[in-house]
Amino acid sequence: MKLPSHIRAPEPRDRPRSTRRRRRLLYAGMAVAAAVAGAVSAFGLPLLGPEVIRDVVYGKGYVRADDGRGFELRDLTLDIYGPGNPGEKKPAAILVHGGSFEKGSKRKPEIVELARFLAQNGYVCFAVDYRLESDDPPAPLLWKWTSISSTAHAAMVDVKAAVRFVRAEADAYGVDPDRIALIGESAGAIAAITAAYSDEDDYRQDGRRYPQPEDNHPDLSSRVQAYVHLWGGADHMLLSVDPGDPPTLIVHGAEDDRRFASYGSSRRLRAMLKLRGVPHEFHAAEGEGHGVWNYRHRFRNLNRLILDFLNERLAPDQP
Questions:
Q1: CA distance 29 to 23
Q2: Which of 233, 264, 272, 279 is 20 to 30 A from 60 in CA distance terms?
Q3: Are strands 51-64 and 71-82 parallel, antiparallel or unpaired?
Q4: pTM for the complete prediction?
C-alpha cells in the first residue's frame, strides 16, 4: 500500500522473532505442558501454569514521527496466554489495561494475573497494548479537542484491530472465532465498550487522511460475544446500545467519582442495557472507589466472578 506524502514509512529496524516461529514455539510448549500436566494430575498435584508468548504484533498504528513532522506507522503488540491443553478450539478473552490513556501496559500485574487465571481455566487470553498520549496519534477533527481525546479515539481503533487480529489468527492460536470476549478496565473499558457496542464501520481508522493499514485485517469483523466493563466510563456509548449488543458484566466502586469514569456512568449504562433488552449483570462495590480489583461477591473474588460470567455466556469446555 502506497502511503500518502504526509505519512512516513517506518524506518527499518531489527524485528523480534517471526510470528510464525513464535507460534511453533508456543504450541510445542503447550504440547509438552499437556503431556506433563496429564502425568502430574494423575498424582493429584497442581497443574502447570499457562504458556505465554510475548510481544506479538497485532497491527499498526499512526504515531508522531520522531522529528515531530508528520506521522509514521508503528507496530502494536500483545501478549498471549494459552492453556496448557491444546485440543478443541477455546474461547478467547482480550484484556485492555487502564491508565487514563497516559500510561499503563499489558504487563500490569492485575491484568497478568487475570489473564493467567482465565488461561488456566480454558481461555486463550490476549493482553493488548494500545497507543498512549505520548505517541501523539492523529484523530478525526471531532476528537482533536484535547490530546487525551485524540488518544482515546486511537485506543478505540486499536482495540478493534486487536479483535480482528484474534479472529484472523484463530486457527493459529486455537481460538473459536465465534467465542470472543472483551475485558476493559478504567480507560481500557472506555476503549473496549466502544469496540463492543459500536457499528462495524465506526472507529476503523484515525481519520480520512490516515488509511487503515492492511496489517489490521480491515475485511474481518470486530464483533465480540461477551463484554466485561470494569470501572470505566460509558456515557459516550449510551445512545449506541442496541438489543444485539453482547451480554455485559459491569463492576464498579460505588464511591467512584472520577471524571469520565464515575459510578454514575455505570448505573446509566445498566439502565440503558435493561431498557434495550441486553443481558447484563451489575455489581456495585459498596464503599469502594476506583479500581476494585479486591472486590468479592458471595465468596467469589473478581477473577472468579468474571470467569463464571464468561463460562455462562461463552460456554467453553470446562478445564
A1: 10
A2: 233
A3: antiparallel
A4: 0.85
Q: How many helices (H) and strands (E) does the chain have?
A: 7, 11
200-236 pLDDT, tens per residue?
999 999 999 999 999 999 999 999 999 999 999 999 9
CA geometry: angle 38, 177, 314, nearest 5 deg = 70
Task: Tell which residue, 165, 162, 163, 140, has the closest CA to residue 153.
Answer: 140
- Whole-angstrom distance, CA of residue 291 vs CA of residue 136: 26
Total residues belonging to the chain? 319
Residue 279, helix vs strand vs coil = coil
Domain 7-314 has CATH 3.40.50.11270: no
CA distance linking residue 287 with residue 253, whole number of Å? 7
Dmax (CA) for the chain in angstroms is: 64
